[in-house]
Design a protein that fits this description.
The structure is a single chain. By secondary structure, this protein is α+β, with helices and mostly antiparallel strands. Helix content is 25%, strand content 38%. Strand 3, helix 3 and strand 4 form a beta-alpha-beta unit. The radius of gyration is 20 Å and the shape is globular. The mean pLDDT is 94.
């Protein structure tokens, strides 16, 4: 028997989590599997992490935490389950659901949670914290911060906050002066520096509600894809951003992509970055891939 803990992140997306909880219970009851099931509806941001950590310490031979939420939810829970014997699965119920784009959920049904295939995937260690999807620096992070700022001041703005944040960011373009000290997948030490409008360190291929910074990124290859976009003339920014969303930007002359396993990113003046949507300040980032860093329950292929 595989014991499952469903964590329903009630702050994610616009889903009816009470109805979904009842649907899970009905499905497990119908198949005589109710003894495999535990469900938690989160009350605050820390609740899901605490519930996952507590569940991971229980003496079950096989156990899975199934996160029902968005990218923030999956990132937070991955951080506490990394290198444990508890697998993590995802039912995408958030707003962007970018990490779920690494899989095909088109035919998903709750019965797929009964006996899922479990295989390890990679995660990123960033200054000792764990990131399952993407860490980024630059224009996108400034948009994210401004979105959060608008929502804190005017919660009823909803998705309009994102549009306002884009406009404000385009009116105040900031390029980050960054120094990279990288170890490539071949073991080569590579040092590069410059001014960059966006830098994205990718385990998964999607973030930011559908942007595709690294079309070739794989979550189980032991490699991180670092995509860095150099400073651009102002009128070139918007056309490249559209390409960045579609994943057709890689051949642009201002775009660099490196396959790396570890490295450092420095900026003496300090900057902000985000990992899995969580914003933090830094002057130096020390990162590495943790190959097979977390057990993943494949609820979708």
């Amino acid at each position: 028997m595989i014991k499952k803990l469903f964590i329903l992140s009630t702050k994610a997306g616009n889903g009816n989590f009470a109805d979904f909880k009842n649907k899970i219970i009905d499905t497990y009851t119908k198949h005589n599997r109710l003894d495999e099931l535990e469900i938690v509806l989160t009350e605050d941001k820390e609740h899901g992490k605490k519930a996952a950590l507590e569940f991971s310490k229980r003496n079950y031979s096989n156990k899975i935490v199934i996160a029902c939420g968005g990218d923030g939810t999956i990132g937070e829970i991955a951080g506490v389950l990394a290198k444990s014997d508890t697998a993590l699965g995802l039912i995408p119920m958030g707003t962007g659901n970018d990490f779920s784009k690494n899989f095909d959920y088109s035919n998903f049904q709750i019965e797929d949670t009964f006996e899922p295939e479990i295989r390890p995937i990679d995660i990123i260690d960033i200054n000792g914290e764990k990131c399952i999807n993407v860490m980024s620096i630059g224009f996108d992070t400034h948009i994210l911060k401004r979105t959060y700022d608008f929502l804190n001041l005017y919660p009823k703005l909803g998705k309009k906050a994102f549009i306002l944040a884009i406009i404000q960011s385009l009116l105040n373009i900031k390029n980050e002066k960054l120094e990279y000290d990288l170890i490539t997948v071949t073991g080569k030490n590579l040092k590069v520096s410059g001014e960059y409008i966006i830098s994205a360190l990718c385990n998964g291929g999607y973030y930011g509600s559908g942007f595709n910074p690294s079309p070739t990124a794989l979550i189980d290859d032991g490699v991180l894809n670092l995509v860095a976009i150099k400073k651009l003339p102002y009128l070139s920014i918007i056309p490249l951003i559209f390409k960045y969303k579609k994943g057709t930007h890689i051949t642009h002359e201002n775009v660099e992509e490196y396959e790396v396993v570890s490295g450092k990113i420095k900026t003496p003046q300090g900057a902000i970055a985000n990992m899995d949507g969580e914003i933090f300040q830094f002057k130096e980032i020390d990162f590495k891939v943790i190959k097979n860093g977390i057990l993943w329950a494949y609820l979708a292929k």
